Amino acid sequence: MLFLFFDPTILWILPGILLALMAQGYVTSQFAKYSRVMTASGISAKDAALGILQDAGLSHVKVEPTPGHLSDHYDPRQKVLRLSEGVYSSPSVAALGIAAHEAGHAIQHGKGYVFLKLRNSIYPVVRLCSSMAIPLLLVSFLLQAVSLTHLALWMYGFAILFQLITLPVEFDASRRAVRILSDKGYLTASETTQAKAVLRAAALTYVSGFVLSLLQLVRLMVLFGGRRRR
């Protein structure tokens, strides 16, 4: 089974790995850069998020701090927007951009945005597929069970479909965030451009993750998909 780790096809996913590393480094550098730029309004990310939610008729959505670095997210089940330690109380351009982005997800949820609804509806199945695909693939190899191989590849592909659906969800949330920050006067024109840079960098991490997973699927299909029952 050593070929799983040393097979030359591992080189196929190196571009995806490099892209993912570059994207992660880029978002970290952009966040660090614009975390040092304070907004003219002086409003904190928490208060900006609360204002955006209230304007959208979502005053029931809570805004809470959460541990970690860039761990910001919106929880649709509990209807809570959680902002990381470096964002929650900060009045920086980066912090407001991220807070508005997460508020954008809450607005998507409130309006029934189709891609978000689709992503949320398939998430339980995707979580199962993600956890079982690779172990099932290894079992199918040991047992030489072609049907299990095909099932595992389909499961892995379904998990990648989830990543694909996530892309328009993230792009739309950023688009909403930039428009609201500008229209409601949370950011000046120049600050809005800077917030765009942060959100664009964050979006690249999702794109690179999808590309890497897609390359890995192609590799697995070549390694396992062509086998026939003896």
Keywords:
mainly alpha; 3-stranded mixed β-sheet; 230 residues; 3 strands
Care to describe what's here?
There is one protein chain. With 230 residues, the chain is mostly helical. It contains eight helices and three strands. It has a three-stranded mixed beta sheet with strand order 1-3-2. A hairpin with a 4-residue loop joins strand 2 and strand 3. Helix 3 packs parallel to helix 5 and helix 5 crosses helix 8. It is elongated. The two termini are 19 Å apart.
Uncertain residue segments: 1-5
- What do the pLDDT scores average to? 90
- The string of secondary-structure elements, in order, is HHHEEEHHHHH
Strand order of the largest sheet: 1-3-2
Outline type: elongated
Which structural class fits the helix and strand makeup? mainly alpha
For the biggest sheet, the summary is: 3 strands, mixed
What's the number of extended β-strand segments? Answer: 3
Q: Helicity level, as a percent range?
A: over 70%
Tell me the strand percentage band.
5-15%
| Number of helices, where a helix is a run of at least 4 consecutive DSSP H or I residues | 8
Distance between the termini: 19 Å
Rg: 21 Å
Summarize the structure.
With 230 residues, this protein is mostly helical. It has helices at 3-6, 14-35, 45-55, 85-88, 93-111, 114-143, 146-183, 189-225; strands at 62-66, 73-75, 80-84. Residues 1-5 have low confidence and may be disordered.
Question: How are the secondary structure elements laid out?
Answer:
Layout: H1 3-6, H2 14-35, H3 45-55, E1 62-66, E2 73-75, E3 80-84, H4 85-88, H5 93-111, H6 114-143, H7 146-183, H8 189-225
Helix pairs in contact: 2-8, 3-5, 5-7, 5-8, 6-7, 7-8
